[in-house]
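Quick question, first post here. What does this chain look like in 3D?
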Amino acid sequence: NQLLAFSKSPYTVLVVPLLLESTEEIPFIKRVLVVDAPQDMQIARTQKRDSAEISIINKIVSAQIPRDQRL
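> Answer (accepted):
Ran it through. Tokens below.
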């Protein structure tokens, strides 16, 4: 929140992974823009970035809000 005080533009981009899964309310967030990619692309990118096993990635994806609810 302190960093947002320095923003002089009408919009400030705040990256919050799993924001929609969070139960904590963030009062200074007025609007949410969801950036989405097909699930197979998400899995491929995550595997490439983290070198993680597919089974672990699938567990992470399944813990997220379903795509149709997110969009």
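The radius of gyration is 15 Å.
The helical segments are 39-50, 54-62, 67-70.
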